[in-house]
Write a structure and sequence with these properties.
The protein is mostly beta strands. It has one domain (2-742): Beta Barrel (Maltoporin, Chain A). The protein is globular. One of its GO terms (biological process) is iron ion transport.
Length: 743
């Protein structure tokens, strides 16, 4: 009944939402050369510094100070702040697989790139190995919904998450430092220092460090608790203005993570977790997770005239990711999987931007990206099972496990390991044009031509004994390749009302390149190339403000024609995996975001998203999934925050900031298996802040998931073949205190 009600809300229109039903999470004010009203939010979602209220797309912006105070220390936490943004954490924290408006990636392979692109300071980060630790010393985060391609370096079907760090400020010596302590013996350090280097240059150094004991308590004697925190990152930014017309920003960063890995919550509990409570696990794996990133990027701006600017973004990335997953979530060795991902990337984005002040403006760009990946994965099945009866487990047990008396294979006592190299190249030219037909009407459009190539080489899979010796070659040395051309684009119309409010409509198409199956282990037939996927989006929206801009209400509604979604198909009996396409789906829904500045001391923010998803044609595991819901697509999401200042005087300012995030039920797979359905839940948190009257000192008490809600963040059916359902669970209640100083 409740699900039908939410669908009704979507059909009735997001704009009819109650005043407390929706609002944007606001970004901090940023400086811009463009004229915008005082106090207005400025974003660069369109590659120009513009007022958020003037940007004719659905975008949410969150300021860096807001993120820091709300303890959004990883990109995973963004889902509680942005309507219609979801994730699955199937490969661990800080390596999220985002879903935006129901467009998602079901494949957890480490060689894949998400349909929701992640950018750090305009540099695309496609591979999981490049993500690392980045949510520190930020200016803001922008989340763009819908297909991207006419403005951004990478063509994507779902949207983009843009993480924008604080830049070095000329002529300013400043900085800050904070330290925090929380439950699970958590300790945090954050800081930055900004120093001028003469009149035309400045350097900013920022860093973060965090450690915490694992919250997944391991009952196996001598084994560590899982899901701990142990990470650091440092970023250097050099800002150099060579002249009034030439500007450079050089950024270099590195990060390292070395925590105890996540734990798997195996069901049914009476078989796989007897005697354990929800936050306990019996795991035999003690190998730490390791993730190292390196990144260098140079952004150059050249004003070739008063109206034309050339921007060049040249970047290099390197990342290594390794983790050893106790896949069965028990102290047995039924199923364990080590993952290795090593990647490097070079990218060049070059664009020409006009700012004529007249009716016509444009952006013309060219983009190149080369990504090289090495992947190695092993399915380790029943390593502690003695099939030969000699009281020891050797390679002979794998030989026995490969062929049963009835001639079938079950693979017990074997390690199935595959490895391969992958090189992907993407070439593109793109354009974004706008023409102001009248003072009220603006026509927008853009085209993008993309040429993608990929090669998967040196692929082989072997069955190994527990000692690592080769028993059988299952997939001989193989190679696959693809070459794909795509033309996509966007056309839209804006209408500015007399009161300054904006109405807009657009049609756009996004494209995601083909991909290779990284999960082929048992037979050459598993090797495959998934076809490119495509989303055609029809969107209408409004950006409005009322009562002397005390109320801001932004709404958007959309319809997606979703073709050839790339999908990993897991056989629940054999564990074999193939990469396929779901031919056709449809998605419709919308978002509403609202801010109410009730007084100088009270502001309300909230956001609401509604979704209706349906597979119109497709088959998975031999089952027709037509009519089923897409994965990671709850029908209703909602978030709200209250900013209330209690005291503001000589003793400083004391404020409270409670928040809540709610989502309705969802599936993590398209078979829509009832037992794997995640029911609706809400997460409650907040922080209480004090700041000295001169703004130099501050303190905060914070909490997240204060009700200690138990919920799943991913689920996979392995019951028939291995006797358990594979689940990840969300973080339990966390809380702490942070103190800081600014200079």
């Amino acid at each position: 009944m409740r699900e039908r009600l939410y669908r009704g809300i979507a059909l009735a229109g997001v704009a009819a939402a109650s005043i407390f039903a929706a609002a944007p999470v606001l970004a901090q004010e940023v400086q811009s050369d463009r004229a915008v009203p005082d106090g207005e939010i400025v974003v660069t979602a369109t590659k120009r510094a513009e007022s958020l209220q003037s940007v004719p797309i659905s975008v949410s912006a969150i300021g860096g100070d807001t993120l820091a105070k709300a303890r959004v220390g990883s990109v995973d936490s963004l889902v509680t702040k942005v309507a219609n943004l979801q994730l699955t954490s199937i490969v661990g924290d800080n390596t999220p697989i985002f879903a935006l408006r129901g467009v998602s990636m079901s494949d957890y392979s480490l060689n894949q790139s998400s349909p929701v692109a992640t950018y750090y300071d305009e540099v695309y980060k496609g591979n999981f190995a490049f993500l690392g630790v980045t949510m520190f010393d930020l200016e803001r985060v922008e989340v763009l919904r819908g297909p991207q391609g006419t403005l951004y370096g990478k063509n994507t079907t779902g949207g983009a998450v843009n993480i924008i760090a604080n830049s070095a400020k000329l002529g300013e010596t400043s900085g800050y430092f904070s330290a925090g302590y929380g439950n699970y013996d958590r300790f945090d350090l954050n800081g930055a220092v900004n120093v001028p280097l003469g009149e035309k240059a400045a350097l900013r150094i920022a860093g973060t460090y965090a450690r915490a004991d694992g919250w997944f308590k391991n009952v196996v004697p001598g084994k560590p608790d899982l899901a701990s925190t142990d990470e650091y990152a440092i970023r250097g930014t050099l800002n150099f203005e060579a002249s009034d017309t030439v500007r450079f920003v050089l950024r270099a960063s590195t990060s390292y993570q070395n925590p105890q890995n996540y734990g798997i919550y195996a069901q049914p509990e009476d078989v796989n977790r007897p005697g354990l409570d929800r936050w306990e696990i019996a795991s035999n794996i003690a190998t730490k997770r390791k993730a190292r990133t390196y990144s260098v990027a140079l952004t150059s701006n050249f004003d070739v005239s008063d109206t034309l600017t050339v921007t060049s973004i040249t970047s290099w990335d390197k990342g290594n990711l390794f983790f050893y997953e106790d896949t069965d979530g028990t102290a047995s060795q039924l199923l364990e999987i080590p993952y290795t991902d090593r990647a490097t990337q070079f990218a060049q984005d070059l664009r020409l931007t006009s700012d004529t002040g007249g009716p016509f403006d444009f952006i013309l760009g060219a983009y190149f990206n080369r990504e090289k990946v090495y992947n190695e994965t092993a399915f380790e099945i029943g390593k502690d099972i003695d099939l030969t009866g000699d009281n020891i487990v050797t390679a002979d047990d794998c030989v026995e496990g490969l062929t049963n008396e009835d001639g079938s294979d079950d693979g017990i006592a074997c390690l199935f390991r595959n490895r391969f190299d992958q090189v992907k190249k993407s070439y593109a030219i793109y354009s974004d044009l706008k023409y102001q037909v009248t003072d009220a009407v603006t026509l927008r459009g853009g085209l993008r031509y993309t040429h993608d190539t990929g090669r998967q080489s040196g692929f082989r899979s072997d069955a190994l004994g527990v000692d690592g010796s080769e028993v059988a070659n299952l997939i001989p040395l193989s190679s696959l390749s693809y070459s794909q051309d795509n033309l996509s684009g966007k056309i839209g119309l804006d209408y500015k009302l007399a009161d300054g409010n904006l109405l807009y409509a657009s049609v756009s198409r996004g494209y995601r390149a083909p991909s290779f199956n990284a999960q082929a282990f048992f037979d050459p037939s598993e090797l495959s190339v998934a076809k490119p996927e495509q989303v055609t989006s029809y969107e209408v929206g409004a950006k409005t403000q009322f009562l002397d801009r005390r109320i801001t209400l932004n709404v958007a509604g959309f319809y997606y024609d979703y073709r050839n979604q790339q999908f990993i198909n897991v056989d629940p009996v054999l564990g074999s995996q193939t990469l396929l396409n779901i031919p056709k789906s449809r998605i419709y829904g919308g978002e509403a975001e609202l801010t109410i500045r009730a007084s100088d001391r009270l502001t309300l923010h909230s956001g609401m998203g509604v979704l209706a998803t349906k597979i119109q044609r497709g088959s998975v595991s031999g089952v027709d999934v037509s009519g089923n819901r897409l994965s990671n697509a709850p029908t209703f999401t909602f978030n709200a925050t209250i900013d209330l200042t209690l005291v503001d005087g000589d003793m400083g300012k004391l404020s409270v900031h409670p928040d809540v995030a709610y989502q309705s039920s969802q599936f993590f797979e398209v078979l829509n298996i009832p037992r794997l359905r995640q029911t609706s839940y809400a997460l409650v948190g907040g922080h209480i802040d004090w700041e000295s009257a001169d703004g130099r000192f501050n303190a905060s008490v914070w909490g997240k998931n204060l009700s200690n809600k138990f919920y799943f963040t991913s689920r996979v059916d392995l019951l028939a073949g291995f006797g358990f359902d594979y689940n990840h669970i969300g973080n339990p209640r966390t809380y702490g205190v942070t103190v800081g100083a600014k200079f």
